[in-house]
Design a protein that fits this description.
single chain; alpha+beta; seven-stranded mixed beta sheet; 5 helices; 7 strands
């Protein structure tokens, strides 16, 4: 139940120049993922929930939302980070420039693992650059990283783990 609907945050990016963050760490957890289903595979590494770190992250994100610091927020679930980024950009009619090398990971060695892992308790969040210090202070200790910027051009531009452009659509 939401006490004040004026505090609701939607998934669509709002304006060019906003900063893009990912909250949570990505692990090579593609078992039963949309990516594996597309490739007719199943996989054994299914996503796991760490209740302690998830709770801390959710509480920190909630404080940031209640403080009015979050412009947009989208969970990374079905399809992982790659799908969340695309949906976030396209819903707002804008684009994103993303650096996968900045995403917090553990055990990730390939771009497809990072883009399509369905690790739990992760979010894509955009904020105004003027909110950066306050946002980062509220999220300290919850696991997050700035991974890019919202751009006016309706393009999803993603640089891979090696620094080369892997997506420009």
């Amino acid at each position: 139940k939401m006490r004040d609907v004026r505090k609701a945050v939607t998934l669509d990016v709002k304006k060019p120049g906003d900063l893009v963050y990912v909250l949570g760490k990505t692990f090579p957890e593609l078992g039963a993922s949309e990516w594996y289903a597309l490739h007719e595979a199943i996989g054994n590494s299914v996503p796991k929930v760490n209740a302690k770190t998830a709770k801390a992250r959710y509480e920190a994100l909630h404080r940031a939302i209640m403080a009015g610091l979050v412009a947009s927020c989208h969970d990374c679930s079905d399809g992982g980070l790659g799908v969340a980024l695309a949906e976030t950009a396209f819903a707002g009619g804008l684009g994103l420039e993303i650096d996968l090398g900045a995403v917090p990971t553990e055990g990730i060695t390939r771009n497809d693992e990072l883009l399509f892992s369905e690790s739990q308790s992760r979010f894509v969040v955009t904020i105004s650059p003027t909110s950066r210090a306050a946002f980062e202070a509220l999220l300290t200790g919850s696991g997050f990283a700035r991974i890019g910027t919202v751009i006016a051009e309706g393009m999803l531009k993603v640089d891979g783990l090696a620094g080369n452009r892997i997506i420009e659509e």
